[in-house]
Amino acid sequence: PPQRVFVRQSLANNLRHELIFGITKTTLDYYQKNFGQRYPFSKVDHVMCPDYKYGAMENVGCITYSDSIMCSSQQMSIPQLTFFCVVIQHELAHMWFGNLVTMQWWNDLWLNESFATALSYYACAEGGPFVEEFKNESWLHFANYKRWGLSDDLQPTNHNIEAECANTDVSESLIDGITYGKGASLLKQLIFLMGWKAFTNGIKLYFKEYKWTNTTLHDFIGKLQQGYDETLGDGKLNLESWADKWLRTKGPNKITYEFQHEEGVITSFKIRQGFCKFGDEVFRKQSINIGFFDQYLNFEEHQNIVIQDRELTEVPQLVGLQVPEAILMNSNDHGFGVFIIDDKSIRFFEENLSKLENQLNKAVVIGQLLIMLRQILYPATRLPILLNQMMDEPNQNLINAVYMSLVQAQSIYLPPENVQKFNKEVADFFLRKAVKERADPKLQMFCLDKAFGFMYDEENLSMAAKWVDTPGKIEIFGEEMEATLTEDQ
Ligand SMILES: [Zn+2]
């Protein structure tokens, strides 16, 4: 379809129109292939709006965006650019899921939003023309998004995914981490449980039957079940029961493990489900991978381990294996829950995180420790240890994951008497990293940006004060380098 983009004159220089057109074209191809339906409208317009309340909105054939997200600056960090990409892909997914088929009532808002969110990250991870540079960023970015869902689900204000919604005024309150972050995470889990082929078969059946109509959760689940049965036909998955336990309850499960061993060999391994405060007492079925690390950091992943919907699940696949140095539940991040890392493994990751080969597993470790922090199972005073593992890390999405928790720790989780020392440690870390990354000006600027919120002590402040007087140059700890600060900074 033809595309146009509109922006106010004053931001025209910041507009990445070629990227917008390119992402759109690549993504429409991807959705058409997987949904089995052509793009249902005759054009795609992109309209950048000032002071827009939401990130973007999927009007039929005409996406309206917040211009502050899409084109406020010429310099965007990698996490911002990843988000830029998935926002477009999210709105495009709505052209099918939302516009071609629409939920009957707001209680199924998650059907629109979780689907659009999850599929946008799949489209991003798929890569292809124009999306290639974000390919490896997609699930790293999503890991932070998932943590938003998990955090909201741990609060007293949590709610079922299939929410109650008395009237349209209430619907606004459903725009939260549960509808977006948790819902999308559960679709990702469901896709892992069903397999991509069965899932997309179900989606194709759904669009074929319900296009240009309104639907409910029951319709959606029914077609996914049909897709699963026609593809695999093993009778192993009852999706109505899955929906009851995951979508019509609230709160995540706390997931731990216990094992016995003889002479260094595992003789039994059990996964235990518990409950979290403010959550319903329900055991839930899900499929995850479990990673084992040995002392030489070799990683072995045990895949598709199904946790049953009961308190204890035996895992015979792990019996007979050597006792590992560290265990990572939910490696590669398909599951949803409060996965607790044991003390020995925590020490291992605090020492070795930077050396893990798989970037996504770094994000999983960081995410699990940060959720444990929220649950008072990991002390905020240890965050600088975790942060130090990021000294050689070039990936901005991973640095960002730790950074967001540093900000929270600073204001919420630290004992007041520790805040000053903490600020100094964090500011020094980002300043030292900025010096170290001088060969990569974008990463250097990213680190400087992160340092600002923690620079409270006199020494740092007087150093920063001089930067204002020397345009194009800054001096950090006696080292002079080229850098131009933006107005925001
Ligand atoms: Zn949406």
UniProtKB/TrEMBL annotation:
State if Cytoplasm is listed as a keyword.
no
Cofactor(s) for this UniProt protein: Zn(2+)
Q: Name the InterPro entries on file.
A: Peptidase_M1 (IPR001930), Peptidase_M1_aminopeptidases (IPR050344), Peptidase_M1_dom (IPR014782), Peptidase_M4/M1_CTD_sf (IPR027268)
Q: Which GO terms describe its cellular component?
A: cytoplasm; extracellular space; membrane
Task: Say if the entry is tagged with keyword RNA-binding.
Answer: no
GO MF assignments: metalloaminopeptidase activity; peptide binding; zinc ion binding
Listed under GO biological process in this entry are:
peptide catabolic process; proteolysis
All residue ranges annotated as the Peptidase M1 membrane alanine aminopeptidase domain in the record: 22-246
**Keywords assigned:** Hydrolase, Metal-binding, Metalloprotease, Protease, Zinc
Family recorded in the similarity comment: Belongs to the peptidase M1 family.
Q: Please state what the protein is called.
A: Peptidase M1 membrane alanine aminopeptidase domain-containing protein
